[in-house]
């Protein structure tokens, strides 16, 4: 088939089915992009309400100096109400943005296809359902594609353009151009569970939930670590409270089941139990945190105890890390044990990658009652994360906590867990990104672009791996895989090969 109109033609008509949060946002960016918009919703009054809401948002943009009044008036005038699906007949493209129910979507797509021209384009805004399966309800699945905006659509710059198995290339090309016209930054994605962004995002939230389920630390501990060490704007549990557990957890299950129980996407029972309890997040005032007047109640952080002296033996192999730790200890007036083996009274500090403190103590023949691990992969400036063995004495823990916090840097103490928290979570994000690249779901550059735009991560997953070192990320994953015996931690071939070759994870196939 051939697309009837060029995406940049002045009289392009865009239909939007569904006038909820996503539908009205898509209608708004289409109208501000100069398109005529026909908005339809089966619920009485929904389209009128959406039309008024969009007008209000555009007027607010004018008041804030982000838009000219004439442009806002013109965009508002471009949005018309369609009373029935057959009223969408003039549309060059129709974008569906209704409930995430595969059978309802398939029924609606059949109705839309019967109403529009044979060469019009059909698009779905689904965030997790198979585009190929939705398209299979149509007589011409080759003209169906995914057009996935992020919430709120007028503010989030990314749109994923997803090709189903039968989607023709020119349909994706048309939607790429249309997304650009709407002021978004499009990326091409092949049809896969969770597409690109939602697939990679599971590494952040699911792994954090598994960590807490294992008793490694609290919700607050993990959030603070990921903000300070990982550089994320929000901790994983803050993010889950914002997006709401009744949205996130079902989508996680959907991705897991569509991937035939791929271990990397295995949901956490912690999230399921809290969903059943109604602890959905910010919108109900209680989730992983409590909310008062819409504001998160964050417990105060405990200060490190006063340092009362001690001698420390450093088991760090990296000379730069060893020097940094030595400087922290000596500035606090602590003593260093420079012996080849730790003295009988020395507190032992090790710096594992992907291992727990117990494994390091056992492998090196160290006294586990005096051993603590510190995460040095992300630097030691913003927060110092310690990990104790099950038998580390309270005195040893207190002394290390005190010396590491003597200069005012916050300190978090975790229970024994391979990969601490930040190592483990970031390694999972990198590994899933590498898996997406390996499956040719998107190009390496588009993978990083989409994740940074769609999730506001400090790096894309492949760039994150490059920043920390692909060989180090590989080592973290291999050690966790060895210790857990869980296939969720097996390294992607994409990651392993590039780490072995010493090249960037963004290196495409030649």
**What fold name goes in the CATH topology slot of the largest domain?**
Rossmann fold
Low-confidence stretches: none
Beta-strand percent range: 5-15%
Structural class: alpha/beta
The level of helicity is: 40-55%
**What is the molecular shape?**
elongated
The count of strands amounts to 16
Order of strands across the widest beta sheet? 3-2-1-4-5-6-7-8
Average the pLDDT over all residues and give the rounded result: 96
Number of domains: 4
Describe this structure in words.
There is one protein chain. The mean pLDDT is 96. Helices cover 43% and strands 14% of the residues. The radius of gyration is 26 Å and the shape is elongated. It has an 8-stranded mixed beta sheet with strand order 3-2-1-4-5-6-7-8, sandwiched between helices. The protein has helices spanning 21-32, 46-63, 69-77, 102-115, 131-135, 169-181, 197-213, 219-228, 236-243, 245-258, 269-276, 319-331, 357-364, 394-404, 422-438, 444-455, 461-468, 470-484, 493-501, and strands spanning 13-17, 36-40, 79-81, 93-96, 121-124, 144-149, 158-163, 185-190, 290-292, 295-297, 311-314, 335-337, 347-350, 371-374, 384-388, 411-414. The protein folds into 4 domains: 13-190, 3-Layer(aba) Sandwich (Rossmann fold); 197-219 and 235-297, N-(1-d-carboxylethyl)-l-norvaline Dehydrogenase, domain 2; 311-409, D-Maltodextrin-Binding Protein, domain 2 (3-Layer(aba) Sandwich), CATH 3.40.190; 422-501, N-(1-d-carboxylethyl)-l-norvaline Dehydrogenase, domain 2 (Orthogonal Bundle), CATH 1.10.1040. With 510 residues, the chain is an alpha/beta fold. Helix 2 (46-63) packs antiparallel against helix 3, helix 7 (197-213) packs across helix 9 (236-243) and helix 15 packs across helix 17 (461-468). The protein is built from 19 helices and 16 strands.
């Amino acid at each position: 088939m051939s697309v009837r109109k060029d995406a940049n033609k002045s009289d392009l008509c865009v239909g939007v089915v569904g006038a909820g949060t996503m539908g009205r946002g898509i209608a708004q960016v289409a109208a501000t992009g100069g398109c005529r918009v026909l908005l339809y919703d089966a619920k009485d009054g929904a389209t009128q309400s959406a039309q008024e809401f969009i007008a209000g948002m555009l007027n607010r943009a004018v008041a804030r100096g982000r838009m000219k009044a004439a442009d806002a008036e013109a965009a508002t005038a471009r949005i018309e109400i369609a009373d029935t699906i057959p009223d969408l007949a003039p549309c060059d493209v129709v974008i569906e943005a209704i409930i995430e129910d595969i059978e309802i979507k398939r029924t609606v797509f059949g109705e839309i296809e019967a109403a529009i021209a044979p060469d019009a384009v059909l698009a779905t805004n689904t965030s997790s359902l198979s585009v190929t399966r939705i398209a299979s309800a149509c007589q011409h699945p080759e003209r169906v594609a995914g057009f996935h905006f992020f919430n709120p659509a007028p503010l989030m710059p990314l749109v994923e353009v997803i090709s189903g198995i039968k989607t023709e290339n020119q349909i994706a090309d048309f939607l790429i151009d249309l997304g650009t016209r709407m002021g978004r930054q499009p990326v091409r994605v092949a049809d896969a569970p969770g597409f690109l962004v939602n697939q990679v995002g599971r590494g952040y939230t699911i792994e954090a939930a598994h960590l807490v389920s294992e008793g490694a630390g609290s919700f607050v501990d993990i959030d603070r670590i990921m903000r300070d060490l990982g550089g994320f704007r929000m901790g994983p549990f803050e993010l889950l409270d914002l997006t709401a557990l009744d949205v996130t957890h079902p989508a996680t299950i959907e991705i897991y089941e569509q991937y035939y129980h791929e271990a990397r996407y295995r949901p956490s029972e912690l999230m399921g139990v809290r969903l059943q309890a109604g602890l959905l997040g910010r919108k109900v005032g209680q989730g992983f945190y409590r909310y008062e007047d819409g504001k998160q109640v964050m417990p105060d952080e405990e200060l490190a105890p006063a340092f009362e002296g001690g001698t420390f033996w450093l088991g760090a192999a990296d000379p730069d890390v060893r020097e940094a730790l030595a400087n922290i200890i000596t500035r606090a007036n602590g003593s260093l044990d420079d012996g080849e083996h730790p003295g009988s009274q020395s507190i032992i500090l090790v710096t594992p990658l992907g291992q727990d403190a117990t494994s390091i103590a056992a492998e090196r023949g160290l006294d586990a009652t005096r051993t603590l691990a510190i995460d040095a992969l992300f630097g030691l400036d913003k927060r110092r994360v310690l990990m104790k063995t099950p038998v580390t004495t309270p005195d040893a823990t207190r002394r290390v906590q005190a010396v590491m916090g003597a200069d005012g840097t916050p300190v978090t103490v975790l229970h024994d867990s391979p990969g601490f928290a930040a190592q483990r979570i970031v390694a999972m994000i990198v590994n899933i990104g590498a898996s997406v690249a390996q499956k040719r779901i998107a190009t390496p550059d588009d993978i990083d672009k989409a994740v940074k735009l769609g999730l506001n991560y400090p790096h894309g997953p492949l760039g994150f791996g490059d920043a920390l070192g692909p060989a180090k990320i590989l080592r973290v994953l291999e050690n966790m895989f060895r210790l857990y015996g869980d296939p969720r931690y097996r390294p992607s071939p994409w990651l392993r090969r590039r780490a072995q070759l010493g090249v960037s994870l963004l290196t495409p196939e030649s």
